[in-house]
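Section 5: illustrative case.
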């Protein structure tokens, strides 16, 4: 795939499991869409053993802008690090999505946008929704914004339900946040200085 290519990955009732690497790893492309097709159930399992080193990526991990969408069901589960993560922009729309991870459930380093959908994001040791960068891009865009336009969100986190590096914009939707002792999925939280 070339850097200027747009890529669409259609999920039509798949189950992908890995014990050695990211089940879905996106290295290049202008923008990548992963679509859970209507009336299908799809499962992505990252069953690597968590370690204190090389904690990179997620069950779905992208080095480019990533859209997760569709009118089907997508379950993403990780025992290693993040659930769905992009080093750039991450956008979620339409689908029914359940993500369970020890670190961040949904992470877009530059931005995270939820346009619509029914989303259950679970983090047993980190944040449910997260952005990391807060600088200005070369095109003059502010990074680090989490935007929620619509949808039904149930967020369970040991730490923050929503952790935006720069700003949080909420324009609609229904959001339920359960953190720390109020999240039935919380595990032990370890402070890491690196």
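Designed sequence:
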């Amino acid at each position: 795939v070339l850097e200027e290519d747009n890529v669409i990955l259609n999920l039509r009732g798949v189950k992908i499991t890995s014990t050695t690497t990211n089940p879905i790893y996106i290295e290049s492309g202008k923008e990548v869409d992963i679509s859970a097709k209507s009336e299908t159930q799809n499962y992505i399992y990252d069953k690597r053993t968590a370690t204190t080193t090389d904690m990179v990526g997620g069950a779905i991990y992208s080095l480019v802008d990533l859209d997760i969408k569709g009118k089907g069901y997508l379950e993403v589960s990780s025992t290693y690090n993040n659930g769905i993560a992009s080093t750039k922009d991450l956008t979620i729309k339409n689908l029914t999505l359940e993500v369970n991870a020890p670190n961040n459930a949904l992470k877009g380093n530059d931005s995270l946008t939820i346009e619509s959908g029914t989303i259950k994001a679970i983090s047993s040791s980190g944040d449910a929704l997260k952005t990391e960068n807060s600088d200005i891009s070369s095109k003059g865009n502010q990074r680090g914004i989490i935007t929620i336009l619509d949808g039904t969100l149930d967020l369970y986190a040991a730490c923050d339900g929503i952790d935006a590096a720069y700003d949080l914009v909420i324009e609609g939707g229904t959001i339920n946040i359960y953190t720390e002792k109020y999240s039935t999925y919380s595990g032990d939280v370890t402070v890491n200085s690196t």
